[in-house]
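During the reporting period the student researcher (J.K.) took over the structure-prediction task from the postdoctoral fellow and processed the backlog of single-chain submissions. One of the processed entries is reproduced below for the supervisory committee.
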Amino acid sequence: ITTAFATTLGISNYSVTYNITQTITRSDDMVVTCPDAADCTKEYDGTALQPVATATVPDGTSAVIEYKTASTDWSTTAPSITHVSEGPLAVQVRASNANYDTVYCNYTLTITQKALTIAAQAKTYTYNASAQGPEGTYTTGLDTYVEVTGLVGSDVLTSITLAGAQTNVGV
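J.K. obtained the following structure tokens:
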């Protein structure tokens, strides 16, 4: 209904109130999908874990995806963690589009510990009735005493404390 339509009917002597209700119906709702658990957990490898959420909007437009943690405000950048001590990190996700209700999902990021093996180097000593073998804390020449496997990236062993010098044969 328009004012031009009302005046052409010769009702100019009336105060016309237009009650126009417009309803837009959607065939589907917008959906936000959080990363699955397998994408949110990994063994420590020195690199960041940063999965992202996705949104499906039925009308083909895009949604704004935002992330929030307990210590951050909403941001379009997905949070990441690199070290075990940074997690578990709970993440809340929201997807918004002006034509749809805002939708939410949650996931948790976790870095698990990587196995690290520290093995004593095999040493042979001649019995002399005294305690033999290294004891104490060492910060240099560590490869003289131990072999380390499992470190990643630039991670290094900076010191080691050894105990267990032996006096008797076969102990």
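The committee noted the following: The radius of gyration is 34 Å.
J.K. will present the remaining backlog at the next meeting.
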